[in-house]
Amino acid sequence: MNEHLRRIQAVTRYYEWVQGLRFLPLGVVMLGFAAWMATLPSQAGLPHAVALGVLGLGLVGALVLYPVTGSYYRRRFGDVKPSQQMRQTRLRLVVLFGLGGLLVGLGLAMLARGEPLDGMAVTALLALGGVTLLAYWAVTGRFAPHYPPVAVGMGMLALAHHLGLNPLCGLLHTQAPSSVMKCGFITVQAAWGLMLVVLSLLDHRLLVRTLRPAPVDETPARPEVAA
């Protein structure tokens, strides 16, 4: 019981930072976009305007669903009034993810336009996901146990891509220079999308299992026997 109470206190303290399913739509959009790009003919290259337009619309839709999901958690579990420490943490996270998102966005835009990004640049974009996730985990109190394994998974994928062992590139069965860029683009999209989906589901599981009402003991009381 003490361990359960300690876990509830930790989750309540960092309730603002446990995203739950908020980023699930964004991860699904990125995974779906990567799957769609993988089915396009390799010889045709990337349809820049159409591809970026579809991705942009999907991302906008996912961001619109973000506050909707947040309202669901507020209705189910309530809300926590932000403290001064929480406001400072929020500012650090905005700066951290703003820089990370800017770097990823620039990298994806260059890959989609067919700019000559080498394998090291794709490796850096993959490793950035793991580093950013570990930084988020450290800033928000290091209480969610599923963050480090997912970050390690991103790091292992980055290493595999750097060593030429990227499984997605093998599945594409292409050798042209444009296909190398296509492989990098799909890898970054799929890896970041999968990371967001896994984190969203595990965050939701953490919230539900920790903050759900305690089970009511329905065992009927035994009647007292008169002496």
UniProtKB/TrEMBL annotation:
UniProt superkingdom: Bacteria
Coiled-coil ranges from the UniProt annotation: none
InterPro entries the record matches: MFS_trans_sf (IPR036259)
Entry keyword annotation includes Cell division: no
UniProt keyword list: Membrane, Transmembrane, Transmembrane helix
Name of protein: Uncharacterized protein
Keyword Acetylation: no
Species the sequence originates in: Myxococcus fulvus
Transmembrane domains' residue ranges: 21-38, 50-73, 93-113, 119-139, 146-164, 184-202
